[in-house]
Amino acid sequence: MNHLISKLQPIDYAIVVVYLVVLLVIGYRASFGKKKKQDETLFLAGKSLNWYNIGFNMWGTNVGPSMLLAFASIGYATGIVAGNFEWYAFVFLMLLAMVFAPRYLASNVTTMPEFMGQRYGEDTRSILAWYAMVKMLISWLSLGLFAGGFLVRQILGIPMWQSVIVLVLFAALFAVAGGLKAIARVNVFQMILLIIVSCILCVLGVQKVGGLSALFAKTPGSYWSLVKPASDAGYPWPAILLGYPVSAVAFFCTDQAMVQSVLGARNLEQGQLGVNFIGWLKIFSIPLFIIPGIVCAVLYPNLPSADEAYMTMVTNLFPAGLNGLVIVVLIAVLVGTIGSSLNALSTVFTTDIYVKKMNPTATNRQIIKVGRLTVLAGCGFAILMAIAIDSIKGLNLFDVFQAVLGFIAPPLSAVFLLAVFWKKTTRRAVNFTLSWGSAISLGIGVIYLWVLPVKEYHFWPHYLLLSFFIFLLLVVLAVLLSVTDRQPVRTAIAVQELAKPTRRVKIAWTALCIVMIVLYLIFG
């Protein structure tokens, strides 16, 4: 496959330069355009985010470079079934907006470990803080950066180490200079750009096929179904129905990189509307990211690997002038994902480790300095890990991404759901689930992926079902530990009078639910 760099014209370079200038101006204005409040830090944007900032920023964090590669690849091989990972998410986004967000904002917390620490004590906060940082370093930063470097290498033909260094340092610029406010403002611009470029790619592809009717006629009927038989090897419906919620609760409701935008909301209504907005944005994931892969299967059916679908479409369909936009979109998704992840990492470390354990009397200036140093340290770790991952041969990137999240998620989902919905949950049960429960879940994951890999040992269930079984085991153990605890220490937080959703929030979520049900009836 020819590298895209060989097709670039002067107008493409001009587009990239103009984009970088606009991006820096937006980031600078967000960071330094107005005098900051005395107590404003890098982390929650001074509680100033509106619904569209929150929605675009959460989507920008979610839409990483792996999505551009993986969704086109899955569309190429199996059709729209992977759309479940986007459309089914509306249930758990609603759980975040209606159940978790009111409690997070009422608790006035900066991080997820702080929220749990208020309920079960400092030991719980420390355990969750370290677990959250390890999760962000591996699943967000290292794997995400590797996917971005992999994509840049396909486009520009430069070595991995050069790709990841340039990309992570550019993303870190916003996290260091302006924190969440700069990242959120930049992501609004970048996600609009991503939508435009992805629409152009989809339209050009469908036109070349001969229109939508020709696309439907030239692809198997199974390509257009979200529900696969229970015997399907890739995405059986029981695995998605039962297993995906475990990952989704952990990802959307408890992950610092995702939830921090809601924590930075101007008020609860803006936070709930922002989460609703990302639900609407996710509807477009199938036409924007998956249908180009299906089109590629029609136009170029004999690719050596389905992973080449996205870049094959770009290289063959985009004329001169639009190729620069592809590079721009790549930078956009990297800045969104890596920037938000770096900010989340620095937030957890400074708030839950540095201030609580190392320097309780730290000034705001010291906290910001440590936060910036944490961002730089995270950059260094991510670069080294991405280069190390690149040295591993035969790695199936998408499967590893999904499986890693599937094995990280059960302890988080179990603990947060029990903490919110079952007031008899004890500190002992929570700490056991976060420590020994995590060891159980991650240990099974290591065995599944490397020791007794599923490709060689066929007794394993689907990894999503395995994640669900681990979740059930941890919930049962937590309940047993809670009811048998002779000296139970339960949540120290009194029952809170939570704000009711406003009429606007109710209308927005009712409309989204109706649309999603109709879509599932059509494509189910």
TrEMBL record:
Its main location: membrane. The chain crosses the membrane at residues 13-30, 51-75, 87-106, 127-152, 158-180, 192-215, 235-254, 275-300, 320-349, 370-389, 401-422, 429-451, 463-484, 505-523. Keywords: Membrane, Transmembrane, Transmembrane helix. The keyword Ubl conjugation does not apply. This is Na+/glucose cotransporter. One of its GO terms (molecular function) is D-glucose:sodium symporter activity. It comes from the Bacteria. Signal peptide: none annotated. It is found in: Membrane. It is a multi-pass membrane protein. The lineage of its organism: Bacteria, Pseudomonadati, Bacteroidota, Chitinophagia, Chitinophagales. The keyword Glycosyltransferase does not apply. Belongs to the sodium:solute symporter (SSF) (TC 2.A.21) family. It comes from Niabella soli DSM 19437. GO terms for cellular component: plasma membrane.
